[in-house]
């Protein structure tokens, strides 16, 4: 089976300039916020699909999706 094509988005030059002007700490803070948002979004989708699952099961599934690259 042929893998599905992936969309590659290119950052606008102006946005890239803004990120370049940030300190390392600021960029890490932004990356952490992006990660946390993605985690909350995935967990929300899992909760909506499986409302009967326990918190432990939700955490395992959310973690598994990150670990296996299935986002």
Structure description:
This protein has one domain. Helix 2 (24-49) packs across helix 3 (55-67). The model has no long low-confidence stretch (mean pLDDT 89). It has 71 residues and is an all-alpha fold. The two termini are 19 Å apart. It has 3 helices and no strands. The longest helix has 26 residues, at 24-49.
H and E string:
HHH
Classify the helix fraction into a percent range.
55-70%
**How many helices does DSSP assign?**
3
- In whole angstroms, how far apart are the ends? 19 Å
Beta-strand residue percentage:
under 5%
Number of strands: 0
Largest sheet: none
Overall structural domain count: 1
Instruction: Estimate the mean pLDDT confidence.
Output: 89
Q: From the alpha carbons, calculate the radius of gyration and give it in angstroms.
A: 16 Å
Q: What is the SS-derived class?
A: mainly alpha
Mass-distribution shape? extended
Low-confidence stretches: none
């Amino acid at each position: 089976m042929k893998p599905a094509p992936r969309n590659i988005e290119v950052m606008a030059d102006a946005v890239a300039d803004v990120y370049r002007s940030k300190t390392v700490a600021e960029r890490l803070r932004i990356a952490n916020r992006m990660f946390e948002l993605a985690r909350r979004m995935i967990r929300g989708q899992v909760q909506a699909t499986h409302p009967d699952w326990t918190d432990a099961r939700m955490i395992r599934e959310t973690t598994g999706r990150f670990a296996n690259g299935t986002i």
